[in-house]
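Support request from a user on the community tier.

User writes: "When I paste my structure tokens into the form, the page sometimes reloads and wipes my input. The last time it worked, I copied everything first. Here is what I submitted, just in case something in the input itself triggers the reload:"
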């Protein structure tokens, strides 16, 4: 009896060690990935500087141009993680971004946009979600750390059930699939992943009141550790889509079926209570008569 229990314990430990090894291998793969392998510089190529054999890229903005990277692959659902260190010091008028987008007039898009500010003032994180060409779903957050001092991980989880945005593993926003209630949700169009820096002095800082000070240029943001193993890579019309990671909806650990659990909802509410600066769903000046449908539907139970 004891021998059988011991054997089962040893087997369980072996499985745990194997899972840890697989997890470590995945992390190592993310660390070693080259931006040259995953991205093309499609705008402002001279302002994209690849370092450490392509494992880090610095995108800069000057008076001539900004810079943008576009993923070589397209994806239909996935989790995308990217480490970013934002522009330090004076950054008013600038936007550093990480987003997924389909392109086209009826495009789908999920945005992380970091609005630069005058030195000493906090960055605002501007998020937006477009579905079937309709956006205007802005939520803004004041970050609870200095995003210029070190790298932090920003993540987009997109599956058929919801879109969840994370910072360092902390959920900050969820947009659920409410197509049954007439709210378009991205499910059909493949996306590219983008990273960019650009000049948006017309609106980025204090509503456009503070303009870009070009004497402080170049403005430099750094990116590293792009991770997209839990994704479905789009192979084109008529071709099979290749999925990575645990994507089967029947699995309890599947990213394809992932939603927020109780603790995640509690964490998201903590972020909203302490760091939410603007929510379109609470803007009565903008919506004096009725809020958009997705604002009325409860997004979760605590």
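"...and here is what came back when it finally went through:"
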């Amino acid at each position: 009896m004891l021998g059988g229990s011991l054997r089962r314990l040893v087997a369980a430990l072996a499985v745990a060690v194997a899972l840890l090894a697989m997890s470590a291998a995945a992390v190592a793969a993310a660390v070693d990935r080259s931006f040259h392998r995953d991205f093309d510089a499609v705008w402002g190529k001279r302002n994209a500087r690849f370092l450490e054999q392509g494992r880090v890229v610095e995108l800069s903005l000057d008076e001539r141009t900004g810079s943008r990277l576009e993923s070589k692959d397209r994806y239909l659902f996935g989790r995308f993680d990217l480490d970013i260190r934002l522009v330090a010091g004076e950054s008013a008028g600038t936007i550093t971004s990480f987003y997924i987008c389909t392109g086209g007039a009826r495009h789908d898009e999920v945005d992380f946009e970091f609005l630069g500010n005058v030195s000493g003032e906090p960055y605002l994180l501007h998020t937006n979600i477009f579905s079937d060409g309709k956006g205007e779903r802005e939520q803004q957050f004041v970050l609870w750390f200095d995003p210029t001092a070190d790298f932090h991980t920003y993540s987009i989880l997109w599956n058929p059930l919801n879109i969840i945005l994370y910072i360092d593993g902390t959920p900050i926003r969820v947009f659920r699939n409410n197509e049954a209630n007439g709210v378009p949700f991205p499910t059909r169009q493949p996306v590219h992943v983008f990273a960019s820096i650009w000049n948006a002095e017309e609106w980025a800082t204090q509503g456009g009141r503070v303009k870009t000070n070009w004497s402080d240029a170049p403005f430099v943001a750094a990116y590293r550790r792009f991770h997209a193993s839990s994704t479905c890579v789009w192979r084109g019309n008529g071709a099979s889509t290749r999925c990575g990671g645990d994507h089967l909806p029947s699995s309890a650990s599947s990213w394809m079926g992932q939603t927020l659990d109780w603790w995640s909802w509690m964490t998201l509410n903590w972020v909203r209570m302490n760091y939410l600066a603007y929510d379109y769903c609470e803007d009565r000046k903008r919506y004096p008569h009725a809020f958009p449908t997705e604002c009325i539907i409860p997004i979760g139970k605590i």
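Agent notes: The reload is a front-end session timeout and is unrelated to the input. The first helix runs from residue 2 to 32. The mean pLDDT is 88. Escalated to web team.
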